[in-house]
């Protein structure tokens, strides 16, 4: 083969060799385009999917977003509104109506309610009330006969030897502070009131050891001037009856004054105190034996079993201080008869255990 023929034979091979890289390049380019298309396609699909999810998500997420809101702000407000409507303050007219019902029911049970301190004149009642702070009326009634025999008038008591006076009243407790009050008020009665107990609240509260509580005991029972005696029993019961939420004695007095006629103030005090001493005790009220249970919004705070509740009852007739007596078969439906007035020659009637009406100053000293 000549040289010319050899070159001619190699020419097609070179052309083919040149075309082959071109085809490979084309194929590579095509593959690159496909890859690019494949990469773009998922991106587009993903974007489309995201858009679709974004359109659907608000509908699905809306309740979820509202739920937390309801569980936090809205949910917290809802119970508050419900509680507010459920605990809506009772109207004054409704309280007055309930107070009248309670007073009427107590009047039927304790028709014999009376001041349980023995006295024969305003001075004796004033002295006995001062002594009754932080002790029982029974203890005071056992102490006052000898006291009044020794010092029958304000002039006599004002001139008493302090140590002798203290010894006479020692059984009532806090005898030093009480003796100081008795000497002070007796001197004031002698010097400023001609030896007479004044019959007004303004004058009484100016006497040493005499506050509104003591003054109203004297006014209501020695002068017939209506007034509420807000002692520990009275305050406890009117709060249990939801007639007031006040704990300050003066505020309690003012709120209860507005619920009852003035003519009922003194007797409502007696009836309430009787009930507090005998049935509605501080620690263990005898709810199951309470004759006015159906009117009490706090029923259930104490013993509700009737038989167990009967054992908690306390009675004023007979017994010793603090002694629980066997309940009469007819009590509390038919109360005992009224106690007789004190006869110096007779045995002093007994009263139930519990705090007496009390001198404000002596009660403060005790606290």
From TrEMBL:
It comes from the Bacteria. Keywords: 4Fe-4S, DNA damage, DNA repair, DNA-binding, Endonuclease, Glycosidase, Hydrolase, Iron, Iron-sulfur, Lyase, Metal-binding, Nuclease. [4Fe-4S] cluster binds at residues 280, 287, 290, 296. Residues 131-278 form the HhH-GPD domain. Residues 33-51, 65-84, 346-367 have a biased composition (Low complexity). NCBIfam families: nth. This is Endonuclease III. It comes from Streptomyces smyrnaeus. The lineage of its organism: Bacteria, Bacillati, Actinomycetota, Actinomycetes, Kitasatosporales.
